[in-house]
Amino acid sequence: MSVFRIGESSNSKCLQTIAPCFMFLVVGFLYLNSLGNLFTNWDDRMIYANPQIRSLQWEHILEMFTPKVAATYQPIRVLSYAIDYYFWELNPLGYHLTNIMFYVLTCGVVFVALRLLSKHLGAAMSEGSHTRVAIFGSLLFATHPVHVEAVTWLAARKEVLQGFFFFLGFYLYLKGREGESRKRVVYFTVVLFCIVLAVLSKPSAIVFPAVVLIYEVARARNKWMDFVKRHWLFFVISIMISAIFTAILIKVMIDAGGIKAFRGGNFGGNLLVSFHAFIYNIKLLVLTVNYSAAYTIPISNPILSLRSFVFVGATLAGVGLSIWSLKRTKIVFFSFFFFVVTMLPYLNIIPISTLLADRYVFIASFSWAFILGILFDRLYGYRRKEFSEGFFKLLSTAVFILLLAGYSFMTIQQNRVWENSYTLWADAVEKYPDSNTANALMGVVYMDFGMDKEAVKYLERAVEILSYDYQSRNNLGIVYGRLGEPERALKELNTAIWLKPDNDKAKINLAVLYQREQQYEKAAEVLRWLLAKQNGNANLHFRLGMVYKEMGEYDKAVSELTTSMELSPNIINPYTELGNLYLNKLKNPEKAKGYYTRGIESVPKATSRVEELRWQVQDLGR
User: For 367, which DSSP code?
Assistant: First the structure.
């Protein structure tokens, strides 16, 4: 028996070394076809059009870590983009490599965390079983297609960053908990640092202290409070970190309009919606085969319905069975409540805009990987005298490989969906034609293509699904204006402003519409009102200068364009328009030549525009 155990221990150590290397190859293979994917229109605000990531100077880094009104607070994510931009500028390949790298690291940490978790919650299992649980579970975690959004969507960098720090913190907690007192202090200090980094990557990591408490209850249901009391300082600090960042998160969401009106009409109805979200997130993780960037959940209307009570009953039954199972197996209790706790930020208890998304189950899927790892190991070690000794080993391995192959195939297929904005939203609209998000962003794709008639079809559908979608109404205003339907454009833009009074983009688009319709005074009035709030906005000064130019008020136009140039000396448009104004309207070729020359010198990277100005200067010099 001892020889067998020595052999098993030796094989286990060998597998512990090989498994992470194999996982690196598996993840690299699965996400290889994502490396050629472009930015999508979901990435624009965070990467493509984000001035914050253009510099790694200390003052810019400090700005990243300073909370701002009406803006998300995920500074680690922004800092990672700035590092990518330093090396890759706007080449999406580099950003994809970073996402994949953090996913590989996350999967590696999941492997070691699953092994320790199996060891602590399944003490009766053999050393080889713990390693098999980790191998089965981590490989299924690594290949699960629900993670594609978190890895392939570049703006979802927050998920893989949070995942790495969250699971690293959990692993170090598991490891440090079993160590000597001095080592435990060191481990727990690093765990607190991991919590901070996870929360700064994505605020939903605030649930980490609850996960640790669930583990402690599962580990020693009658003595867990004793451990907490002995290490009260760690738990107090971790809870304080969560409380502080919860307050920051709620404030940011309120300022940005992220907290929506109660679904179901009131808090009670909204709570029933949370049970819908919970059940559908389980389905997303366990039973879904067609993944999408946007989903629709059929919410019962009225919310007090048989369907709602079935969902409530199923959830409460799961809670009851998990608590009951604690007397017999710690694994079911831990896995169920790990899933519940890590899903809490997304269950609409505080109403948010999106009820269901692949990225929401990224951390929670750890529990599914753990359960699958345990089940495959139990099947692997199962024995019955009617079957040969190796039968269940072969059966377990075969079923595991079949599931792994299925997950891998779906992952590779889903990577292709994220190839570009068109493929992404065409897929989402096809799968979920009643999704406001899918229709709204498909409309934006066609706007970018200049196919305004097609854009209208999707934007109108988006507004039909969600009447208070002010962004789609704003986009409809733009498209109607370009199609020569000013009355419809005016109606949509005014509705967008009414729905979101602080939406300055809609006001700018209103000014553009007035300018296009040659209602110059109205356009100027809107822009002057905006400048009263944002006098340092170079774009607004430029737009007002162009309006004055079309009005024939050239002195005012020169003043506004000059202010725009001074506020943004590295933007070429003010130089060009000042030169054009002096050349064509004020008949002063020398001044025109001077502004063209300054544009060439100030913005040398705008190669095509600079070349045009060089020809202008050359013509004026003849």
Answer: H
Residue 458 domain-assigned (yes or no): no
Give the angle subtended at the CA of 372 by the CAs of 371 and 375, to the nearest 5°.
Answer: 85
Residue 610 or 149, more confident: 149
What was the pLDDT predicted at 252?
Answer: 76
- Residue 50: what pLDDT? 85
Distance CA 46, CA 55 (A): 14
Contacts made by residues 554-563, CB under 8 angstroms, sequence distance 24+: 554/581, 554/585, 554/586, 557/581, 558/586, 563/538
Q: Which residues contact 608 (CB under 8 A, 6 or more apart)?
A: none
Buried b (16+ CB within 10 A) or exposed e, 283-322: ebbeebeebbbbbbeebbeebeeeebeebbeebeebeeeb
Q: CA nearest 213: which of 204, 224, 222? A: 224
Question: 2 pLDDT exceeds 80?
Answer: no
Q: Is residue 160 part of a domain?
A: yes
Q: Which residue has the higher pLDDT, 110 or 18?
A: 110
Sequence-distant (≥ 6) Cβ neighbours of residue 513 within 8 angstroms: 477, 481, 486, 489, 490, 493
Quote the domain boundaries for residue 38: 2-417
- CB contact at 8 A, 256 and 500: no
- Distance in angstroms (rounded) separating the CA atoms of residues 83 and 89: 9
Quickly tell me which residue has 């005298």 as its tokens: 385
| CB proximity list for 455: less than 8 A, separation 6 or greater | 443, 444, 445, 446, 447, 475, 479
pLDDT at position 622 is 64
Domain total of the chain: 1
The pair of structure tokens assigned to 141 is 């975690």
Q: Give residue 1's pLDDT.
A: 38
564 falls within a domain: no
Q: How far apart are CA 176 and CA 467, in angstroms?
A: 52
Residues 525 and 519 sit within 8 Å (Cβ to Cβ): no
Q: What is the reported pLDDT for 34?
A: 96
Q: CB neighbours of 476 closer than 8 A, spacing ≥ 6?
A: 456, 459, 460, 463, 488, 489, 492
Give CA–CA dist 549/571, Å, rounded: 19
Amino acid symbol at 238: S
Tell me how crowded residue 254 is: count the other CB atoms within 10 A of its CB. 11
- In angstroms and rounded to an integer, the radius of gyration of the C-alpha atoms of the chain is 29
* CA distance linking residue 153 with residue 160, whole number of Å: 11
Tokens of 622: 């003849």
Residue 596: closest CA among 614, 584, 569: 614
pLDDT single digits (tens) 354-393: 889 999 999 999 999 999 999 999 999 888 888 888 899 9
285 band by pLDDT with thresholds 50, 70 and 90? very high
Mean pLDDT in the chain?
Answer: 90
Helical pair 391-417 and 365-380, crossing angle rounded to 10 deg: 150
* Other Cβ atoms within 10 Å of 350 Cβ, number: 16
CA distance 138 to 111: 5
Q: Which amino acid type is present at position 262?
A: F
Position 293 in a domain: yes
pLDDT tier at 123, thresholds 50, 70, 90: low
Q: How far apart are CA 98 and CA 333, in angstroms?
A: 35
